[in-house]
Amino acid sequence: MGWKAGVVTAGTLPLNLRWEQLAWLGAVMVGLGLGHVVLSRGTHLAHVVHISLVALYLTPVVASALWAGLRGGVLSSVLVTAAFSIHVRLAWLGQAVELPQWWSFVAIFWVVGVVGGVMVDLQKAERARALARERDTERRNVLEAMASLAAALGSHDPYTRSHGERVAQVAAALGAELHMGAEQLEILRLAGLVHDIGKLGVPDDILLKPGELSVAERTSVQRHPETAATILQPLRGAAKVAEVVLSHHECPDGSGYPRGLRNSEIPVEAQLLRVADVFCSLIDTRPYKAALPPSTVLSMMEFMAGPKLNEVGFHALETLVRRGELPPPNWGK
Ligand SMILES: [Fe+2]
Q1: How far, in Å, is the centroid of ligand 1 from the Cα of 248?
Q2: pLDDT tens per residue across span 235-267
Q3: Ligand 1 centroid distance, CA of 281 (Å)
Q4: Which of 36, 173, 202, 241 sits most deeply, having the most CB atoms within 10 A of its CB?
């Protein structure tokens, strides 16, 4: 519920009223009130008008029930009962109040408030369940798509696939260490699994080259985050994973690629993914480098922490290494 550019909004309910409409509603209420005073002369017609106008008390009850469900219906029924009681007392000043009539109107207010509120709450709950089912299906589709992509990557380059699996584990462990929520941890796992999927677009002779890469070859390799994003973005529900993968080579000082993002411009999941990626890459044996022990890798990464790596993520990594809670390196593959 909220106020937006002169429009009263009530969640997903169709209660959008413009200021002009509210002014008209107010004018009608004032007109009815004046008519009520003018006609209050004890005639038969006045009695009929009185009974009809009592129905106006239902307006706030119905509106509140639609707006806030059972809570709104009950609260407005309490307030309307109080206002109606004062009204009746004043109208019957000096005379005995017709209690059965009072009770019947109050009962109507409460029935409308409670039943209307319960119906609105049930409708909202059904909508929430439908949304949850839709999200669940979307999530399963994304998981299956990621598993297929990881399998495709594995058939092209088994190391990159196993590297992705370990990066996913380390990134999720870092996220858990930093108390991230379940949704962020899942993004870290999925993004870790397919972060190098863009390497499908890098020729094997470059990807598996034992020696140093030329400038052109390096440029070709550095295109892999964008290639990955191009593969992932069309997948429904994978937009965040695509954004994280696109940013996993960005550095806090802006020297990374492909967009040269800085600090908070880089999604926090991508920053943790980079910490995990650098750690797993340094610790593993590769055609162009020997494996390194975790202590040596941490010393090397300490120099990168700040400008090149997220510092908080690095300290979380130190903690995990100290506690021996990381998956074993890929030595000798
Ligand atoms: Fe990468």
Answers
A1: 7
A2: 888 899 999 999 999 999 999 999 999 999 999
A3: 10
A4: 241
Residues 196 and 92 reside in one and the same domain: no
Tell me: do 187 and 282 sit in the same domain. yes
Q: Tell me how far the alpha carbon of residue 133 lies from the centroid of ligand 1, in angstroms.
A: 33
101 found inside a domain: yes
pLDDT at site 330: 56
Distance 323 CA to ligand 1 centre (A): 27
Closest CA to 146 of 241, 221, 276: 241
Q: What's the pLDDT score for residue 11?
A: 42
Q: Do 112 and 38 share a structural domain?
A: yes
What is the torsion angle, in degrees rounded to the nearest 10, for the CA atoms of residue 103, residue 108, residue 110 and residue 115? 150
The pLDDT of residue 14 is: 43
Identify whether residues 165 and 111 lie together within a single domain: no
Q: Which residue positions in the chain have pLDDT lower than 50?
A: 1-14, 331-333
138 alpha carbon to ligand 1 midpoint, in Å?
26
Cα-to-centroid distance, 236 and ligand 1 (Å):
23
Q: How far is the CA of 319 from the centre of ligand 1 (A)?
A: 24
The 3-state DSSP class for residue 81 equals helix
Which pLDDT score, from 0 to 100, does residue 329 have?
60
In a domain, 145, yes or no: no
Cα 288 to ligand 1 centre (Å): 16
The tokens for 125 are: 């709950």
User: SS3 letters for 125-148?
Assistant: HHHHHHHHHHHHHHHHHHHHHHHH
Let me know if residue 141 belongs to a domain.
no
CA of 193 to the centre of ligand 1 (A): 11
Closest CA to 194 of 183, 186, 182: 186
Total domains in the fold of the chain:
2
Same domain, 316 and 173: yes
CA–centroid distance, residue 224 to ligand 1 (Å)? 7
Q: Which residues span the domain enclosing 103?
A: 2-129
Q: Please indicate, yes or no, if residue 26 is contained in any of the structural domains.
A: yes
